[in-house]
Known about the structure:
Layout: E1 2-7, E2 10-12, E3 18-26, E4 31-39, E5 46-51, E6 57-59, E7 67-72, E8 77-82, E9 91-101, E10 104-109, E11 113-117
Parallel strand pairs: 2-11
Antiparallel strand pairs: 1-3, 3-8, 4-5, 4-9, 5-6, 7-8, 9-10, 9-11
Amino acid sequence: QVQLVESGGGLVQPGGSLRLSCAASGSIFGINAMGWYRQAPGKQRELVATISGGGSTNYTDSVKGRFTISRDNAKNTVYLQMDSLKPEDTAVYYCRADRIIIARAYAYWGQGTQVTVSS
């Protein structure tokens, strides 16, 4: 079993910055890809960014050049640095970890953290 604990959400002004963290604990063996998703009011949950076990990253077009995903494997933690925030970035942000062990795949989700961008 894997537990994901998120932190770093809050209220920021447009153009501001925020850094989200997600720490994995429990049965962490086999975790490879990790990522961030978000869900805004009235919308479907969408992918924001992913990072593979080898460090390869992908971003949705709307955040390219503004957000940076990274990970510290020694700490089993993934980060999302968010710069130049816009009101449309307002959403609940969720961390996800994918785990493969004994030829079976599992997905784990964090509890979510609120990010609000407003003046």
